[in-house]
Amino acid sequence: MRKDTIPTKDPGRSPRTSILSQRGFTFLEALLVVAVIAILVAIIVIALNPGKQLGDSRNSQRQADVNTILHAIYQYAGDNNGKIPSIPLTATEICATGSSSCNNLVDLSVLTTNEKYLTVIPKDPQCSTTCATSGTGYKIVKTTNNQVTVSAPAAEQEKTIHAIH
User: Fold this and answer.
1) 105: which of 69, 95, 132, 161 fits an S-S bond (Cβ 3.0–4.6 Å)?
2) What DSSP character marks residue 153?
3) CA 162 to chain CA mean position, Å
4) Residue spans per domain, the chain
5) 95-121 pLDDT tens trace
6) What is the pLDDT of residues 10-63, one digit of tens each?
7) Comparing C-alpha atoms, which of 102, 105, 100 is closest to residue 138?
8) Cα separation, 101 vs 136, whole angstroms
């Protein structure tokens, strides 16, 4: 027998045939690998919770939007001797930029005129389902002492999003 060959149980088989017949996975081994990968993927999806992540992202956008609207109002007031745009004493949805009709909505188009304070009034990220016709999804209210609050009533995950000045 040559020293460079691998002995086999069957002396009639060549060493090369014996090695080739031992390669590959059995069906059971392949099935176990697929099952382990499926379990790991399920654990990762549950841990990341994409629904919560997307809700958090939309809430962050809402917080930025209400702050943007409020800052634009006070920039306008700073340029107009402290006079703020017409805002009601009850929380009312803000009218979207370029709307043909702002019935029962707060018109803040003075903020977008010549794009001096805002280019457009921001809209809620889910405005297609949460906004009134011609609305932005954000509400605004003024107290009797001219304190303005902008809020996002469609905030997700039981968050309260508003900006007060």
Assistant:
1) 95
2) T
3) 18
4) 50-164
5) 998 888 888 999 999 999 999 999 999
6) 555 555 555 555 677 788 888 999 999 999 998 888 887 888 888 899 999 999
7) 105
8) 13
